[in-house]
Amino acid sequence: MSQVYLNGAFMAPEEARISPMDRGFLFADGIYEVIPAFNSVLFRFEEHLQRLERSLREVEIRNPFSPAEWQALCEELIAHNGGGNLSVYLQVTRGAAPRRDHAFPTPPVSPTVFMMTSPIAVPAADSPDTATGGKAITRDDIRWARCDIKSISLLPNSLLRQQAATSGAMETILLRDGFVTEGSASNVFIVLDGTILTPPKNHAILGGITRDLVVELCARHSLPFAETEITEAQLRQAEEIWITSSTREVVPITQLNEAVVGNGKPGAMWKTLARHYIDFKRRLCGLDQE
Ligand code: PDD
Questions:
Q1: What is the mean pLDDT of residues 170-175?
Q2: Has domain 4-119 been given CATH number 3.30.450.40?
Q3: Shortest-distance Cα residue to atom 4 of ligand 1
Q4: 83-134 tens-digit pLDDT
Q5: CA 279 to CA 138: how far, in whole Å?
Q6: What does the pLDDT average to over 139-156?
Q7: Whole-angstrom distance, CA of residue 99 vs CA of residue 116
C-alpha cells in the first residue's frame, strides 16, 4: 500500500489531513519539486535540492530541513513505496495561519511539508530505436512573470495542458510575444539547421533539471548547441522538437499542431542525445547491474 509523508509522519494517503486554513489551499502559497528515482537512486538530487532552496528563498518560506534531512526523507519515502522507478513529489507551503490575510502571518507559522511518490512510465529515451514520439500544440503563454519559481500555483499550466489533452496532444508549447518559452510542464529544444537550440534561462521559464542535463550532455559529447531565443517561425521550421522533464526525460515531438515535424519520426539528433542520456542514467543509477 502506498505511503505519503505529511508534517513529520508517514501514513496512508487517505489518512493525511491538511487544514483548510493552509495557505497552500487558500493562496497556492507554496513551492514544489518533482525528483525522479531510477532503481531507487535519486537522480540529480543535488540539483533538485538547489532549485528547491532557491524557490523557497524567492517566496520567503523557511526551509524546514537540511539537505541531509531532505535526502533521508526522500529515500525513506521511496523505500516505503516499494522502490524502483518512482518520482518523488514534494511540496512546501507557508503553513496554516489563524486567519486569511494576503500578507504573511505574523508571527510566522510552521511550513506544511507534503511528499508522495508516483510510478514513472518507461521514458521514450530508454528505447531510441522504437520510440514513436508525440504531438504538441502551441498556445499563448498566459502565465505570470516569475515562471522560474517552481510555484504550486499551476492553474494556467493546468488549463494549457488540458488543451493539449483535448487535442489529443501530449504537451502544449507556449509562446510569449512570438517566442517559445517552454511547455506547460516541460522545457523545449529544437533542432534547426543541424543545431540544437533551447531558450536561455530567465524569469519566463523554469530552469529544468533535465534541460540542464541535456545542455551538459551536448557539451560533453560536442553536439552542436546554442542557447538562444526561438521564434514561432523557427519552431515551425524545426527539423526536430523535443520536450524535457524529470518524469518524461527527453521526448521527441513529431507533430506540431496539424503539421508533421521533420519526417514525422524521432530525429537522428534526438536518437544520439537519447543514447547519451541513457548511458548517463545507467551509470548514475547502477541500472547496468540489474
Ligand atoms: N514539471 N517547465 C515547467 C513549467 C515544468 O512544470 C517542468 C517540470 C519543467 C521541467 O523541469 P524538470 O526537468 O526539472 O522536471 C519545465 C514537473 C515534472 C511537474 O510539474 O510535474
A1: 98
A2: no
A3: 185
A4: 999 999 999 999 999 999 999 999 999 999 999 999 998 777 788 988 999 9
A5: 32
A6: 98
A7: 28
- For the Cβ of 141 lying below 6 angstroms from any atom of ligand 1, the answer is no
The DSSP string of 44-96 is THHHHHHHHHHHHHHHT----S-HHHHHHHHHHHHHHTT-SSEEEEEEEE--B
Q: Give me the residues paired with residue 188 across strands.
A: 243
pLDDT per position as a tens digit, 10-64: 999 999 999 999 999 999 999 999 999 999 999 999 999 999 999 999 999 999 9
Q: Residues 150, 201, 265, 271: which is the catalytic one?
A: 150
pLDDT tens column, 238-267? 999 999 999 999 999 999 999 999 999 999
Q: Specify the CATH architecture of the domain 126-285.
A: Alpha-Beta Barrel (3.20)
- Is 50 exceeded by the pLDDT of residue 205? yes
**Residue spans in the chain of domains classed CATH 3.20.10.10:** 126-285
Is any ligand 1 atom within 6 A of the Cβ of residue 87?
Answer: no
> Partners of 37 in the beta sheet?
42, 86
- End-to-end CA gap in the chain: 24
Domain with CATH 3.30.470.10 in the chain: 4-119
Pocket test for ligand 1, best of 206, 210, 250 (most atoms within 8 A of CB): 206
- The mean pLDDT of the chain is 96
